[in-house]
Amino acid sequence: MHPIRKKRLTIVLFLVVGVSVAVALTTYALRQNINLFYDPSQIAAGEAPVDVRIRAGGMVEEDSVIRDPESLMVEFKVTDFSSSVLVEYTGILPDLFAEGQGVVAMGRLNGQGRFVADQVLAKHDENYMPPEVNEALEKAANKRASESGGQLETSAGY
Amino acid sequence: MWQIFHKLGSPKWFYGIASRLMPWLLWVGVALFIAGVIWGLAFAPPERLQGNSYRIIYIHVPAAFLAQSVYVMMAVAAVVTLVWRMKLADVFVKSVAPIGALLTFLALFTGAVWGKPTWGTWWVWDARLTSMLILMLLYAGAIALGRAIQDEKSSARAVAVLVLVGVVNIPIIQYSVEWWNTLHQPSTFKLTEKPKMASEMWVPLLMAILGLYMLFGWLACLRMQTEVLVREGRTRWVKELIQQGGTR
Amino acid sequence: MAFDSLEAFITMGGHGPYVWSCYFVFFALSLVLIQWSRVHRRFVLRTLARGYAEPDTAGTSRASADFARVDTSDH
């Protein structure tokens, strides 16, 4: 390669590397602000500010949704499988809201560790399945779980 | 090896190759894309949670995918412009930037319309959506800068530097959903893993992506040929080409 | 076919407006860009052909220099 081109290529590489490093450092410094929401572990650890509008996100815990029969108030637990936070919300929930589904709630954390939401967004996961396939998969998973329960004991003994 | 590389840079050679490629790109692209979209819209099964709204994926993902890979191609062309001063690389960048801008806009638009019934909001300032918006601004900046500078050589270099600096945004878009908490879900397709999607859903999606790729190639060739004609209008080969009616 | 009737296909279980507006905007804007590119190409070809047809374009005439600089700034 021609020496002048070699020199230009070096300058170009330095430019790209330099900009990448600068951007990487900036995003690293801003990482808490880039995160859209706090997860329940962060809230439990006291990382989230109290009485400031924040977002909390995670999975709606199974069997935790309590709907008030009189009003649109709902109460549910959001979990990341290590800790969970209690959320209360009054309003219409998105179609995809269900137990075992991801959500992002916007609102304030009050003094008692309850999260009072004024907006709840549903988070979709990256899996796309037709309804029948999903049912079949779940059935298979349950079957495997019950079978492996027995297997576990034998393998533990062995 | 370098000889082939320099031949690639010859506008005349490019013009001939493009003319031969274009009918194939257009018709195979149209067939694949339309087949993928119709399959996705009418024949693919509904999604277990989203129902039918997920059918937006058959244009959302191709547009978003192309928007990013067009930018990567532009960045490669920008390196060629800066290091080898190849004019055809600049022709590529200038011709393709508006296509990339449109695809980015379409990815954002279809994403917003999809987000409303699925997430419950049109827009949220999460890392994926914001970095995609930055991509659109980069495209717009490249178009505006290229037009603002009259001198062909300075314009080529300025745009190339801008495009190259902006390329850091591409890995940010790609990995935003893994590095940070976002509302947007992680990628369904990864090179190393099986797609997290039923095959009767992703086969049409793959067809739509390939088809759109080819249609992009066709439109890129068409626009590049035009740009070559404008820049090489005074050369003998262009004059002969036009007088012989070889531009149909 | 994933739908029982044409009506079910149009309404998409209540998601019809979202799905169809996406597809409409996608195709409409794409076709606008394609058409724009083709019109521009035709314009450039016509301008160039007119330039070559002028009698004094042979050699180093100003006319041929002018049409090459013609404003074709729609990309």
Automatic annotation (TrEMBL), chain A:
Main location: membrane
GO MF entries: heme binding; metal ion binding
InterPro entries: CcmE (IPR004329), CcmE-like_sf (IPR036127), NA-bd_OB-fold (IPR012340)
Coiled-coil stretches noted in the UniProt entry, renumbered to this chain: none
Residues exposed to the Cytoplasmic side: 1-8
Binding site for heme: H124, Y128
Listed Pfam families: CcmE
Keywords in alphabetical order: Cell inner membrane, Cell membrane, Cytochrome c-type biogenesis, Heme, Iron, Membrane, Metal-binding, Signal-anchor, Transmembrane, Transmembrane helix
Topological relation to the membrane, as annotated: Single-pass type II membrane protein
Keyword Cell inner membrane attributed: yes
Extracellular topological intervals: 30-158
UniProt keyword Lyase, yes or no: no
Cell compartments where the protein resides: Cell inner membrane; Cell membrane
Entry GO terms, CC: plasma membrane
GO biological process, one term: protein-heme linkage
Alphabetized PANTHER family for the sequence: CYTOCHROME C-TYPE BIOGENESIS PROTEIN CCME HOMOLOG, MITOCHONDRIAL
Function per UniProt: Heme chaperone required for the biogenesis of c-type cytochromes. Transiently binds heme delivered by CcmC and transfers the heme to apo-cytochromes in a process facilitated by CcmF and CcmH.
Family (UniProt): Belongs to the CcmE/CycJ family.
Name listed for the protein in its UniProt record: Cytochrome c-type biogenesis protein CcmE
Protein's organism: Marinobacter confluentis
UniProtKB/TrEMBL annotation, chain B:
Membrane topology recorded in Swiss-Prot or TrEMBL: Multi-pass membrane protein
Intracellular or extracellular location(s): Cell inner membrane; Membrane
Residues passing through the membrane, by range: 21-44, 56-84, 96-115, 127-146, 158-177, 201-222
Coiled coil: none
One function term, GO molecular function aspect: heme binding
Domain of life: Bacteria
Cross-referenced Pfam families: Cytochrom_C_asm (PF01578)
GO BP of this protein: cytochrome complex assembly
GO cellular component, one term: plasma membrane
Keyword Ribonucleoprotein annotated: no
Domain Cytochrome c assembly protein, residue spans: 25-184
UniProtKB keywords: Cell inner membrane, Cell membrane, Cytochrome c-type biogenesis, Membrane, Transmembrane, Transmembrane helix, Transport
UniProt entry tagged with the keyword Lipid biosynthesis: no
Major location category of this protein: membrane
Function: Required for the export of heme to the periplasm for the biogenesis of c-type cytochromes.
The family this protein is said to belong to: Belongs to the CcmC/CycZ/HelC family.
Name this protein carries in UniProt: Heme exporter protein C
Organism name: Marinobacter confluentis
From TrEMBL, chain C:
Top-level taxonomic group: Bacteria
Record localization: Cell inner membrane
TM regions (residue ranges): 18-36
Record-linked Pfam families: CcmD (PF04995)
Keyword terms: Cell inner membrane, Cell membrane, Cytochrome c-type biogenesis, Membrane, Transmembrane, Transmembrane helix, Transport
Transmembrane is among the record's keywords: yes
GO cellular component: plasma membrane
Signal peptide: none
Main location: membrane
Region (Disordered): 54-75
BP-aspect Gene Ontology terms: cytochrome complex assembly; heme transport
Family: Belongs to the CcmD/CycX/HelD family.
Known function: Required for the export of heme to the periplasm for the biogenesis of c-type cytochromes.
Name listed for the protein in its UniProt record: Heme exporter protein D
